[in-house]
Design brief:
about 450 residues; alpha/beta; Four Helix Bundle (Hemerythrin (Met), subunit A); Rossmann fold; 434 Repressor (Amino-terminal Domain); binds guanosine-5'-diphosphate; binds magnesium ion
Length: about 450
């Protein structure tokens, strides 16, 4: 993609706001790239539409081309779509013994992933894990899990020939409780296609085990099929998260995007090979990069980001130099202070500012005060924040009441805003903003 885009983007060199033409030209290429990455057609359509809306009319920063700007918007949108609810890599396994049910088609990588995940839970999370194979269909399937268990040093439920999956699940549950396991994992049988028997079996196991997590394992190389499989499994069994395997292959990871867009399920992990430690937490940034086929695009996007921030800081500084320091600015500073441990903490980081800080009313403000001050600002209207001079008696009363605080505290805040505004003005003039820039970055 980057080569092709590069060509198109070189032609888009007009500065200013992104025109419809700019956006459309760039998005034609993005569309092709997504289809090549095996993203399903309806998802591509929606995605392109949503980027088009965001991009048209967006301001272009000085040192990137309109095309680069579109790439940044595309990249950000991809990440947003790929990011699911909850932390990737985290599982709900607090109540011991927590059952994890592994489902998916045959050959998707269920057994391998079960063992990889058991290893991760044992080593990283210090959990005591029991694995059980419920695959009575395929010869040697149960032995496969047993062998992997030995290899990674994780217990497996002893094999009893002739048992059905529900009976095995029950035995695993009992064994997990008696043996003091934190987690027990049920590796189910798969088939080449979804059929009623497979679903019925998985549902019966689910009803016995009451899993805290039902992880659907899907082959990341199968593209669109993967999504149909996911929808079906989720409808019939209920899926809490997805593991995409074979992400080490040639596939571009388009399945991940389709999966998120259509099922809405969070992708928790990706499989990156056959080895037992080839399981990683799903990272939207990495997959977005892969879908765009980039490398150099990342650098490009970072550059655009950086430029945006620098321009923002510069605009802010110009305002401060002119003595325009409003409540929005103060709020930003207060939030920054919260992060840095109060006013003195912040000022002490700036050369020569320690003394000044002590002379100000805001000196020695602590966390609870910062919270109250921010609450006051939150109770102001947009207009009031932009222009604190509006704040006369009646408005002050309303704001104080709205935040449950005294008018006297609001008066202190106003004084602080004026003092800080003055200080920012002086600082801006002193070092041509150098010091201020540092303080804000
Ligand atoms: P199951 O039928 O769903 O239990 O699938 P298996 O776990 O037996 O895996 C089928 C094959 O896929 C095995 O040869 C695995 O080594 C391989 N496999 C599983 N996960 C991955 C992966 O992330 N990357 C690669 N390259 N191979 C994988
Ligand atoms: Mg298996």
């Amino acid at each position: 993609l980057s080569d092709r885009l590069g060509g198109v983007f070189d032609r888009l060199t007009k500065q200013g706001a992104l025109s419809e033409d700019d956006v459309r030209t760039a998005l034609r290429e993005v569309r092709v790239a997504l289809l090549e990455a095996d993203v399903s057609l309806p998802v591509v359509r929606n995605f392109v539409k949503s980027v088009e809306k965001k991009a048209t009319g967006a301001a272009v920063t000085k040192s990137v081309t309109p095309g680069q700007q579109v790439v940044k918007i595309v990249h950000d949108e991809l990440i947003e779509m790929l990011t699911g609810e909850g932390e990737p890599g985290q599982l709900r396994i607090d109540q011991a013994p927590a059952p994890i049910l592994m489902v998916g088609l045959q050959g998707s990588g269920k057994t391998t992933t079960t063992a990889k995940l058991a290893k991760r839970l044992t080593e990283r999370d210090k959990k005591k894990v029991l694995m059980a194979s419920l695959d009575v269909n395929r010869p040697a399937a149960m032995e496969q899990l047993e062998i992997l268990g030995k290899q990674i040093g994780v217990d497996t439920l002893p094999i009893v020939k002739g048992e059905d999956p529900v009976a095995i699940a029950k035995r695993a549950k009992t064994q997990a409780s008696l043996g003091g396991y934190d987690v027990y994992m049920l590796d189910t049988a798969g088939r080449l296609h979804i059929d009623q028997e497979l679903i019925a079996q998985a549902a019966a196991v689910r009803d016995v085990a009451n899993p805290r997590e039902t992880l659907l394992v899907v082959d990341g190389l199968t593209g669109q099929d993967a999504v149909n499989v996911a929808t079906e499994f989720d409808d019939k069994i209920g899926v809490s998260g997805v593991v995409l395997t074979r992400m080490d292959g040639d596939g571009r990871g388009g399945a991940a995007l389709s999966m998120r867009a259509i099922t809405g399920k969070p992708i928790k992990f990706v499989g990156l090979g056959e080895k037992m430690d080839a399981l990683e937490t799903f990272e939207p940034e990495r997959v977005a990069g892969r879908i765009l086929g980039m490398g150099d695009i990342v650098a490009l996007v970072e550059k655009a980001q950086h430029t945006l921030e620098a321009e923002q800081a510069e605009r802010m500084m110009k305002r401060f130099q002119k003595g325009q320091f409003n409540m929005n600015d103060l709020k930003m500073q207060l939030e920054q202070m919260q992060k840095m441990g109060g006013m003195e903490g912040m000022m002490s980081m700036m050369p020569g500012m320690g003394k000044m800080a002590k002379q100000m009313d805001g000196a020695g403000i602590d966390d609870s005060m910062l919270r109250r001050q921010i609450a006051l600002i939150n109770s102001m209207t947009k207009k009031e924040r932009a222009n604190p001079a509006l704040l006369q008696a009646s408005r002050k009363k309303r704001i104080a009441a709205g935040s449950g605080l005294e008018v006297s505290e609001l008066n202190k805040l106003l004084k602080m805003q004026r003092q800080m505004g003055d200080m920012m003005k002086k600082m801006g003039k002193m070092g041509k903003g150098g010091m201020l820039k540092q303080a804000m970055s």
